[in-house]
Amino acid sequence: MIVMARRRMGGFVASGGPTHRIRGVRIELLRRVPLPLLKSPGRPHRTNPAAQPHRQACFRQRIFPMDKRALKILFDTYWSKDGWRSGARCPAEADFAFAKAQGVMFDPISPTHDESIERARAAAARLTPQAVGDAFVASLSTRRLDWRSALGSYCMARRVPTHPATDGVICNVCGLYTSGEEEDLNVYNFERLKWGGVRHAYPVYAALDLELLLREPLPSPTSEDVALLRKILAAIDSAPAGTTSAMLHRKLPASLKANKAERDALIGMLGHCGALSTAAHPGHRAGFVRYVDRATPPRHFVDMPYPVSWWKRSDGIEPSSVQEFFGHLL
Ligand SMILES: [Zn+2]
Fold first, then answer.
1. CA-based, 20 to 30 A from 275: which of 33, 108, 122, 327?
2. Distance 15 CA to ligand 1 centre (A)
3. Per its UniProt entry, which superkingdom is the organism in (predicted)?
4. How far is the first Cα of the chain from the last one, in angstroms, to the nearest whole number?
5. Lowest mean pLDDT among 51-60, 191-200, 223-232, 289-298
6. pTM, whole model, 2 decimals?
7. Please, what sign has the CA dihedral across residues 170, 176, 178, 181?
């Protein structure tokens, strides 16, 4: 995820993974329609049933169908074999309608600043640290990156306060556009499904991410997932003291099926939850960090998100964060 150049479409490089510190994007892709609020049936959280891993895997497959055609329509809109398209490709009307019916694509929205904050806070209030911890861990063997994403979004959304937008184009507190920009939820969902998300600290992304997670019964990790989590934490713990967050992807276990971009995103998530944070930059672990206070390390290239961008192995793994999100599994 090396930041090489930024372009209007979300500040992404032409190929490779996503970059960080990108704003909401405006893509003249889809027709403008009234704000569609995602419907969440509010099903109860399933907490680690004592079923056999194989049975759980079958259960997941049955209750989380991901329509391949709808995913292809979404992915083809933004991505080609060469990486990001130079401009989003507008899907055929029938394809777009199909992907929307499958809950994979959406009409654009133009929420106000206050609406976005409220949606993010409301979605987070329906979840718990254990629930998003479960979703994160359940993603490890299944490579369901959408499940993995929720941890990052939750950690910001549960902390963001209700507040008035500050003066200027971008709110200093939360980073939202203050003018109610049109938001393309499809590029957000694409990033969520491809990498486990990029913009977890952006309230519109966080709201979408958490609402989509809540739309289905919440996933439960298997013993295989928990074993992978243990291996990941042990690998981080045993890395040389000078290992930076950008170097850490090489240390993660080979049994984790993930490419470099996915590994970097996973490491970023462990930063969002505070496990890989520093005393000076604890992230949202200790309280909400304002957008303007999310400092960037003084380096030429910063290819990891705040706060893990500051982390080195010598900072250690924060035990209270591991306990809060994963303690019920370990
Ligand atoms: Zn704000």
1. 122
2. 32
3. Bacteria
4. 31
5. 51-60
6. 0.82
7. positive
